[in-house]
Design brief:
about 260 residues, seven-stranded antiparallel β-sheet, 16 strands
């Protein structure tokens, strides 16, 4: 009889162990985007990023061939521009953001994605102030930037302190982490009132803390941000694209936001 009871209780004990492990870090999932509706991006949360004049957005376009939702993935593309008569840029790219629709404050953001490999490709996941504070005073949090076909990704913060004053090493404002450039990886940042904690595939890359300083604007990150997901091509940092490598695709499996339980 004792053995029967033990075997009967075993599944429950296993569930309890795994359940405790799943919650051991204290995070509770409060919002997620799984891109489960084929061909549709939720307009209540996301908007297409418009063209701008910076390296990162000067090829942005709302053309339909740059966007797809398929097999549970958001697909963002960078392609050779098929219509240079009406739009004279050599390439066009797709990106979406939650600007003026959804903000993220204290908590943890995770993004699972597979990045395409191409010369001049510069995909990014990042955060800007939800109140549209002027850059760089409002702060910028780069959860992931990857160049070309690299096997590392960059994670960085920008602010008046790091950019205008040029103080990038006290404390260090960025780091890199290894990725599998042929598969999906998970990129994350934890937002606290006194620090930002970055990781790739669960491996801590660096922490950016609030410090005591007489310099202005060192930690503007205790606020709400909106999220940008974009496929970019070319720029001063990444260099030139090669048409032979295009089109290039980025597949985003999900975005998750957690709060401390």
């Amino acid at each position: 009889m004792k053995n029967i009871i033990r075997f009967a209780l075993l599944p429950f004990m296993i569930l309890m162990v795994f359940g405790c492990n799943a919650q051991s870090d204290g995070w509770k999932l409060v919002w997620e985007e799984n891109f489960d509706t084929p061909g549709k991006i939720d307009p209540a949360v996301w908007s297409k990023i418009p063209r701008g004049h910076s390296d990162w957005n000067n090829y942005m376009s709302d053309r339909e061939e740059l966007y797809d939702v398929r097999d549970g993935n958001l697909i963002l593309r960078g392609i050779v521009n098929p219509d240079t008569e009406s739009d004279d840029v050599p390439y066009i790219t797709g990106g979406i953001y939650t600007k003026d629709k959804k903000g993220f404050g204290q908590g943890k953001i995770e993004i699972r994605a597979k990045l395409g490999n191409a010369r001049g490709a510069w995909p990014a996941f990042w955060l800007l102030p939800f109140d549209n504070s002027q850059w760089p005073s409002g702060g910028e949090i780069d959860i992931m930037e990857r160049l070309n076909s690299d096997t590392i990704a960059y994670q960085t913060v920008h602010s008046h302190y790091t950019y205008d004053l040029g103080i990038e090493e006290n404390p260090p404002h960025g780091s890199t982490g290894k990725i599998n450039n042929q598969d999906y990886n998970i990129y994350s940042v934890e937002l606290y009132p006194d620090s930002l904690v970055f990781a790739i595939n669960g491996n801590h890359t660096f922490t950016y803390p609030r410090i005591e300083t007489d310099k202005e604007g060192q930690f503007p990150f205790d606020r709400d941000f909106y999220l940008l997901l974009d496929m970019q091509l070319e720029g001063k940092w990444v260099g030139k694209a090669d048409p032979a490598d295009l089109p290039v695709e980025m597949l985003i499996d999900w975005v998750r936001f957690y709060k401390k339980d």
